[in-house]
From TrEMBL:
Protein name: UDP-glucose 4-epimerase
A matching Pfam family: Epimerase
GO molecular-function terms, A-Z: UDP-glucose 4-epimerase activity
Single GO biological process annotation from the record: galactose catabolic process via UDP-galactose, Leloir pathway
Length: 334
């Protein structure tokens, strides 16, 4: 059986495809290339250029490729963009996920793994935040994902689709073997922006808010290496396939450690050996002050053991990818 990876030409999806191939799975990718790259998917992996909301197309792909599991990454992902374009985010993330779920149910797909997010928690009352905390998203992005989780739960109850919803904290880094990384153009993610600045691709970096109630006044996040994250998906897939007794799961994906914006920037300066200019800017809309994963459940239930839970390692891998990215983009455009 094959595994459909939606958004498989994107940052996390492209690492997922490599993880599946390395473990003897047969990935099939559907991607509309809105932010992804065709070259990020190996040539021997079936690639469908299309929209997950196109029910006819998706049902045909599910049947033709004998898919038994869907790993659903395709989405719009930028928290502040969702504040300025909420309806666009509800369309891209919630409504299109509904269509995908409809296609999955119509073709009796048994297993579904969903990319959820720490953003569903908003600004949690306590950190680390566990999966049982009451969700309280503070951005349309977080709400769009929470609504998808609820649809998934209800579709599972009604139709027997079994699922794992993975709530990722801040995903960062790149494939340790240099085969994949974050190639997003005009990226807004802190670690990528800091790497671009260290490498002279940007003149400076802005710190959004220095007056939060955190240890140094800047926002705290739990950064998880993308390789550890995609391995968690492989374990989730095995869990779902392990038999009818395996439950639906909702699991945080993070290390249980927080790093502040300053700490991330300082790590990039330290690892790259380059100093660069920091500007101080206003708080960014939709940003919680601090969010760190309660990370025990995934270790306990899936036996997940991270291999790259060290900020300097994450930074080193991200820097290495970033340093070669322009050449890669040029080669692939030619
Ligand atoms: N990057 C993070 O820190 C982070 C954290 C939490 C959750 N997530 C979730 O992980 C998933 C992947 O994020 P990413 O960082 O790889 O983003 P990305 O933008 O690199 O990847 C998304 C991919 O989906 C594709 N896509 C978007 N809409 C589509 C559609 N309608 N039909 C087909 N393809 C479509 C894009 O072209 C792209 O290749 C998203 O669901 C995101 O919400 C990411
Ligand atoms: O140039 C920058 C970029 C970011 N930040 C700050 O850095 C922190 C992290 O921001 P960012 O890297 O954009 O990530 P988040 O907004 O935390 O969101 C990411 O992490 C979420 C999970 O926590 C995911 O759901 C989202 O898809 C993903 O974009 C925030 O406080 C930002 O204000 C800066 O100060 N300067």
């Amino acid at each position: 059986m094959s595994v459909l990876v939606t958004g498989g030409a994107g940052y996390i999806g492209s690492h997922m495809v490599l993880e599946l191939l390395a473990n003897g799975e047969k990935p099939v990718v559907i991607d509309d290339l809105s932010t992804g790259f065709r070259w990020a998917v190996p040539d021997d992996v079936p690639f469908i250029h299309g929209d997950i909301a196109d029910g006819h197309l998706v049902e045909r792909v599910l049947r033709d490729h004998k898919i038994d599991s869907i790993i659903h990454f395709a989405a719009r992902i930028v928290v502040p963009d969702s504040v300025s374009d909420p309806l666009g985010y509800y369309l891209a993330n919630t409504m299109k996920t509904r269509n995908l779920l409809q296609a999955a149910v119509s073709t009796a797909i048994p297993h579904f793994i969903f990319s959820s997010t720490a953003a569903i928690y908003g600004n949690p009352a306590t950190n680390p935040v566990g999966e049982d905390a009451v969700p309280s998203p503070m951005s349309p992005y977080g709400t769009s994902k929470l609504m998808s989780e609820i649809m998934l739960r209800d579709a599972s109850l009604a139709h027997g689709l079994r699922y794992v919803a993975l709530r990722y904290f801040n995903v960062a880094g790149a494939d340790p073997f240099g085969r994949a990384g974050q190639s997003t153009q005009g990226a807004t993610h802190l670690l990528k922006v800091a790497c671009e600045t260290a490498l002279g691709k940007r003149p400076s970096i802005s710190v959004f808010g220095t007056d939060y109630e955190t240890r140094d006044g800047t926002c705290v996040r739990d950064y998880i290496h993308v390789a550890d994250l995609v391995h968690a998906h492989l374990l989730a897939l095995r869990h779902l396939r392990s038999g009818p007794q395996s439950d639906n799961l909702t699991l945080n994906c993070g290390y249980g450690e927080g790093a502040s914006v300053y700490e991330v920037i300082n790590a990039v300066k330290r690892v790259s050996g380059r100093d660069f200019t920091i500007n101080f800017a206003d708080r960014r809309p939709g940003d919680p002050a601090k969010i760190v994963a309660g990370a025990d459940r995934i270790r306990h239930l899936l036996g997940w053991v991270p291999n790259y839970d060290d900020l300097d390692t994450i930074v080193a891998h991200a820097l290495s990818w970033e340093a070669n990215l322009d050449e890669r983009l040029r080669t692939n455009a030619a």
